[in-house]
Backbone:
């Protein structure tokens, strides 16, 4: 037997048994990857000892020397690279009183604490190396006595291999994983380095950045988000699977409730996921404000089978004018309304199909036009429609429209003389001026019409005043009779006043 001084007294006081077991499992997994051999084995024998075995090349005494393993440094997919994990694990087992033995075809190894060579006052941990008990043994086996089932399970849960998390997509930067529980985990080459409370997915980073390499300490735990967030973002931006995109975009629906996962707070990730989802078709991206301001179009979209996806205004701005992965226009409210207008048809209602109250209001068209000198000669007709196109720059249906030949007014405007009169005069102003809304020419024409109506009101008022000042005998029998009638109190004087105003302004229909 020969003794190999590991030059260890006491170290890593904060490590528990599962930390040390993690290093043994990590080395076994690395050897499996390097040699392409069968899966590692973790088992418990009849004596209660735990055995962790790989089926690679076998441990040699040189492996107890602390150095960076060049073979591991050159391989991008391995977990360990530091060359210190084995000695850290052995030191922890020694401190915790866990008996450790190693078997390979090159040697059997046990451990004890003994005097350092030539320094009898210094006691260090030594590897006691003996000839192999089985020269035909394949791989390396660690035999641990004194650790619990919980220690083994806690160590295994630190590896993606044993986590139970499903791989959703693999990219050049790493993998997107469906998390197994409420907490998300960040893995680097299959070993857990951090936890995230508000991530939608777990991630296995396989392409390391300089920031990640710098942040990875010997313990490979508690790596901060600042080190890996850019790489997680790269993984998502490189993703193209429908499953990942759908989960991300569905999560956008939590924006209004303030429960959005952290990945979707990255605008470029939200935009990327939206583009993938848009390519699937039959969706409509809306902001909360658009849903509130355009309920009719939202209802129409849902009725046609579209999935409404709520997005923040910042994402809408980024998506505006872009196309998805297949070159399709992003389906936002503007595009939906444009498509609707392309196939829009008015639903005209003939006057005889109007109800009595609506027909009474519509029959005032001529007298209303007379207030401003009559309908312009270019107006061929005034029509009523159940449906209207949206107003320019808006997603609400217009109340009226001047087509260049006809004035079309939405049927709901016939609910009162006031609403119908205001829409009709507005469209007559368009017909007279030939100008669109928000133009100087239209504003001048509308101002002119207001003056005409005001002048007509004043003339009517003046005539009414003169009539009331005439002697009683000069009044018509109807007026004398009305003056003798007691005035009933009105519960709602406003309608009576409005009706009286329009009656005086438009004159007696029977005249």
Residues:
């Amino acid at each position: 037997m020969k003794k190999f001084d590991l030059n260890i007294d006491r170290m890593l006081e904060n490590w528990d048994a599962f930390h040390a077991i993690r290093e043994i499992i990590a080395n076994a997994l690395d050897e499996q990857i390097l040699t392409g051999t069968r899966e590692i084995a973790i088992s418990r024998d009849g004596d209660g000892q735990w055995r962790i075995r790989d089926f690679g090349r076998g441990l040699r005494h040189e492996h107890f020397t602390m150095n960076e393993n060049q073979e591991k440094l050159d391989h991008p997919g391995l977990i360990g690279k530091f060359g210190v994990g084995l000695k850290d694990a052995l030191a922890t087992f020694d401190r915790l009183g866990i008996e450790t033995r190693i078997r390979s075809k090159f040697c059997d190894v046990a451990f004890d604490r003994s005097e350092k060579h030539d320094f009898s006052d210094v006691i260090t941990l030594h590897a006691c190396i003996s000839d192999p008990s089985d020269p035909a043994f394949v791989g390396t086996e660690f035999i641990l006595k004194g650790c619990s089932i919980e220690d083994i399970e806690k160590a295994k849960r630190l590896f993606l291999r044993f986590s139970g998390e499903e791989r959703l997509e693999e990219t050049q930067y790493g993998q997107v994983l469906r998390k197994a529980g409420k907490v998300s985990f960040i893995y680097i080459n299959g070993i857990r380095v951090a936890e995230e409370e508000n991530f939608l997915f777990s991630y296995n980073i396989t392409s390391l950045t300089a920031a990640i390499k710098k942040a990875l300490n010997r313990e490979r735990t508690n790596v901060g988000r600042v080190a890996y967030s850019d790489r997680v973002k790269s993984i998502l931006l490189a993703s193209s699977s429908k499953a990942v995109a759908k989960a991300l975009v569905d999560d956008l629906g939590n924006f209004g409730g303030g429960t959005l996962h952290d990945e979707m707070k990255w605008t470029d990730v939200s935009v990327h996921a939206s583009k993938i989802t848009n390519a699937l078709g039959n969706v409509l991206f809306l902001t909360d404000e658009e849903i509130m301001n355009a309920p009719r179009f939202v209802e129409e979209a849902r009725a046609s089978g579209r999935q409404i996806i709520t997005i923040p205004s910042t994402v809408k701005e980024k998506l505006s004018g872009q196309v998805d992965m297949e070159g399709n226009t992003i389906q936002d409210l503007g595009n939906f309304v444009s498509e609707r207008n392309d196939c829009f048809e008015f639903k005209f209602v003939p006057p005889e199909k109007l109800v009595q109250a609506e027909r009474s209001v519509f029959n005032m068209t001529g007298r209303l036009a007379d207030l401003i000198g009559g309908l312009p000669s270019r107006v061929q007709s005034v029509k009523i429609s159940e449906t209207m196109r949206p107003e320019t720059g808006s997603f609400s249906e217009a109340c009226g429209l001047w087509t260049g030949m006809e004035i079309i007014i939405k049927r709901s405007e016939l609910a009162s003389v006031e609403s119908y009169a205001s829409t009709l005069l507005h469209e007559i102003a368009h017909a007279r001026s030939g100008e669109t809304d928000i133009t100087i020419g239209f504003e001048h024409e509308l101002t002119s019409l207001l003056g005409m109506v005001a002048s007509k009101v004043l003339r009517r008022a003046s005539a009414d005043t003169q009539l009331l000042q005439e002697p009683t005998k000069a009044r018509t029998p109807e007026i004398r009779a009305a003056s003798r009638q007691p005035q009933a109190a009105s519960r709602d004087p406003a309608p009576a006043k409005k009706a009286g105003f329009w009656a005086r302004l438009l004159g007696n229909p029977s005249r």
Remarks:
- The chain has 18 helices and 17 strands.
- The chain has a mean pLDDT of 85.
- The CA atoms of residues 123 and 279 lie 68 Å apart.
